[in-house]
Amino acid sequence: MTAITRNLPWFIKDLGVAIVGEKCYTSIVENLDVADVECLKYSLSKGLGLGIVVGGSIMKVPQLLLIVSARSARGLSLTSYVLETLSYAITLAYSYRNGFPFSTYGENLFLTLQNVIITLLIVHYNPPASLAARPSAQRTVLSIQVVIAFAVALALLPPSTLALCQIATLPRTSLFSKLPPGIPPRTHSRKALASLSAFARSNSFPRTPAAASLVSSPPPPEVRRPYRSAPASPSPSPSTSSSDCRYVLM
Q1: For the region Disordered, what residue ranges are annotated (predicted)?
Q2: Contact between 113 and 177 (Cβ < 8 Å)
Q3: Beta-carbon neighbour count of residue 67 at 10 Å?
């Protein structure tokens, strides 16, 4: 078997080395050393990270396609998408500027881009009252200018300020996710939100070892109580017979 793994095509070897490194690629792939626990853990974490990135790249594609095909974004909350997009963008900027591996934050890049497109579609198809009077082209240009301004601001913020912004995004899953993405009044909106929710649930994986240990922790053992037999019911006394009851009632 090692004769095959050591003679893989160059592009497969280069891809494997780029993902797990030369040492772990040689140990796991070429030598098939399954006893190398450290490389196994590292390779598994890298694989899960890349899987989350791939999931994030297609997570909101059904939502986009349904909005475009219906030519309507009714039922979608503009405020919710703006907050969610800002949260993803802050996490993306913080991770990139700190030099984190792409597999640990790559899904934020794709989610930010998809959310920006959805936000622009909401402004285009169903603008808020403050922008409804403006032409569609003017609304689109104004929205793109706001997006560029936020991107430049995140790129120029001092590291300490960006770190504070990153801390502020930590309650995103507990706060922003509670904001309703929309009340779907039509069938196509229901389908869009259902598709988005399904992809969001399938893409929710823990990013830290502590969270993973909490997810994989076994349930507490069941406490067994000692069995106690029910007390025997007393036998009916002769004084409570049906005939005596009739005499008493009479």
Answers
A1: 209-245
A2: no
A3: 24
The C-alpha angle with vertex 62 and arms to 174 and 96, in degrees rounded to 5, equals: 55
Strands (E), 70-221: none
Q: Which residues of 72-89 are buried (b: 16+ CB within 10 A; e: fewer)?
A: bbbbbbbebbbbbbbbbb
Cβ neighbours for 234, distance < 8 A, ≥ 6 positions apart? none
In angstroms, the Cα distances linking 84 to 6, 104, 169, 171 are 46, 19, 9, 11
Residue/partner pairs of 175-179 with CB below 8 Å, 24 or more apart? 176/80, 176/83, 176/84, 176/87, 179/77, 179/79, 179/80, 179/83
228 phi, psi to nearest 5 deg: -120, 130
Prediction pTM value? 0.63
Token code pair at residue 158: 């001092």
**pLDDT 10s per residue in the chain (250 long)?**
777 777 778 778 888 888 888 888 888 887 787 788 888 888 888 888 888 888 888 989 999 999 999 988 888 889 989 999 999 999 999 999 999 988 888 899 999 999 999 999 999 998 888 888 888 888 889 999 999 999 999 999 999 999 999 888 876 544 444 444 444 434 344 444 444 444 443 444 445 443 343 333 344 444 455 545 545 555 544 444 444 434 434 4
**And the tokens for 17?**
């080395």
Alpha carbons 52 and 202: distance in angstroms, whole number: 9
